[in-house]
Design goal:
Helix content: 25-40%
Number of domains: 2
CATH class of the largest domain: Alpha Beta
Largest sheet: 10 strands, mixed
Oligomer: single chain
Number of strands: 12
CATH architecture of the largest domain: 3-Layer(aba) Sandwich
CATH superfamily of the largest domain: HUPs
Low-confidence stretches: 248-253
Order of helices and strands: EHEEEHEHEHEEHHEHEHEHHE
Length: 271
Amino acid sequence: MQQILLPFGSDTADEVPVYAASSLASRYDATVTAMFYPRLPDPVIVDPMSGGVVSYDGLDDEIEAQKADAGKKIVGRAQKCSPPLSGEKLNVDMSSLSNWRQVGEVCRVYDITIVARSSENPHWQTLFEMALFEGGRPVLVVPQHCDRPFGDTVGIAWNHSTETARVLALSMPIIKSAKKVYIIEVDGWVHAGPDGVMLQKYLLGHGVESEFKRGEPAGNPGERVLEVAENAGVDFLIKGAFTQSRLTQMIFGGATRAILDKAKIPVVFAH
């Protein structure tokens, strides 16, 4: 894991998880690119093919004002991290994106993208889904005010699915660097596929020892996963996203939605 993307806008510069990016960069000797996206006021005309802005009276002045404010905040917060995120470890890109809907595309050339879960800014979910479904790379969702180290005790929410297998493979550097790894299974929450014993053998083939933790088959499986993870002292969770359709999860609920909404620890997702 060498290239970390931290997208931010004028509306998120105060809450984007700079500490989490700094922690990952320090742990893996990686570089963080904090990439600015303009939040375009309405009404605007956007080219559906390129995603670029066609016209807006006074747009340039507004974007420049957003850049000046947001860029200053990001650099200031990065310097306050321990260790500080600066120099060669921080690249602040203020010009690559013309609007926030391009974030999903640029994720494709980064090892991981970091998004903050926000109780005040509803746009974070759209940003997460663009990165998840358009980027094809892992997306790390960090709860607000998460300023403690993570990654020593990793939990894998294993339901045998393709999505979980994908995030597992993409997150192998995280798993290999952990001091403790738990395979978390919830009775009844499974798809057709390799069970936890086979996963344990796979991990051992990569030099990773792991232990099982099992949840009861009551209520939402995502909530059970979080309960098991909390009891085991997990500080970083790995989860395949939306193994059921998003529509099904919106109507009936689902593990991904529960974990997105309620996790107290960073969670890395892939689809």
